[in-house]
């Protein structure tokens, strides 16, 4: 006898909600996805995907028979065994997580709700207690609550869901946790079954630690620039130590996106609200913000003042594989360059900025963006930029200066092609021409 699949409701048709819903549908579950934006639901019903995520349109199309989309909270709550909360929890001005969307979801649950409420959204430690109290106050004390944080990376989210490093399940009652854990039985991974507080902390602590590694290697890169060391060689040597490992030791111009900045700030604020000064995270945040601005200093080193200079920003999304501009280095750089009086051109293959890059000229191709430019800055590690050191690019630029904010290019090859080159922590060195044993860069989990 075939085991019956759970009916799943997804509250929030954003990036996490759509990926979660599509993947559960692909595992054989009937899924109803609800959102409050009519245009988004209309687009999904018509087969249009409102976000850029590799493989998601195909996954949604393949599972149309098991997926439905609605604006009606009652329809979801009364037809699902499990209700996954996948709404945004952006930072407030204080750095705390804004949980207003979570409370709205709770307010909209009908009295006849019987489904287990599963928190996918990233929330502060202690949120589960508050949610349970709110449910009891509304006469919904019978609704079980489970924390099941997501660990998805933009650009590889479907792979991350189907082949996760781990699944974290936090519950107040062991039976509720085991019931949710069974949902992942078809995936080959370890399930961490724990309490709600620990599950909430695992998500915040994981992202804060990864952000710390990124800020650390960026600080090392800055020291490399003044001492003559090559951060790529340093990171390779460090990463071979089993206690350290190679992951998240890629120097660049800082982390961004919807997870790391928000979660680091939220954990710092959570600690502060509890009376603990998390000094390390203060430094992680400061290093990351300063790193984005160091590009301006590299440009001034070669060009002097920037007033009247044309600077091309190549790549706008915070990382390759996504159209996400949240906390992207490109936004900071464009604003700083425009404030210096520079003319800014920009290109990205998928991101379509509007207000974020006000004052910058958006171009259709990298070549168009660099034409007449005094410098080009690689901001996002798109594959299309790996052959940037070409003759047509050099000829199109007024001044052939490449600032490689992601260490995407080979410095010696770029200089041999007639460009001036500035990387991050990469001075001229005879050893930089030696072949490297590259470790695969892991996907950045959010």
Q: How would you portray this structure in words?
A:
The chain is built from 16 helices and 14 strands. The protein has helices spanning 15-26, 38-45, 56-62, 73-77, 100-107, 127-137, 157-162, 174-181, 196-227, 231-239, 260-273, 279-303, 329-339, 366-370, 391-396, 411-416, and strands spanning 7-11, 30-34, 67-70, 82-85, 116-119, 145-147, 166-171, 190-194, 310-314, 343-347, 361-362, 375-378, 401-404, 420-422. The strands form 2 sheets. An 8-stranded mixed sheet has the order 3-2-1-4-5-6-7-8, sandwiched between helices. Helix 6 (127-137) links the parallel strand 5 and strand 6. The longest helix is centred in the middle third of the chain and has 32 residues, at 196-227. The protein is globular. The two termini are 38 Å apart.
Runs with pLDDT <50, length 5+? 429-440
The Cα radius of gyration reads: 24 Å
CATH overall fold name of the largest domain: Rossmann fold
Oligomerization state of this entry? Answer: single chain
Calculate the mean pLDDT score and round it. Answer: 92
Give the number of helices.
16
The CATH homologous superfamily of the largest domain corresponds to NAD(P)-binding Rossmann-like Domain
Share of residues in helices: 25-40%
Following the backbone from N to C, one meets helices and strands in this order, namely EHEHHEHEHEHEHEHEHHHHEHEEHEHEHE
Strand content: 5-15%
The main pleated sheet reads as: 8 strands, mixed
Task: Output the strand order for the largest sheet.
Answer: 3-2-1-4-5-6-7-8
Structural class: alpha/beta
Number of domains: 2
**Straight-line N-to-C gap:** 38 Å
Number of DSSP-assigned strands: 14
CATH architecture of the largest domain: 3-Layer(aba) Sandwich
Q: Would you state the CATH class of the largest domain?
A: Alpha Beta
Overall 3D form: globular
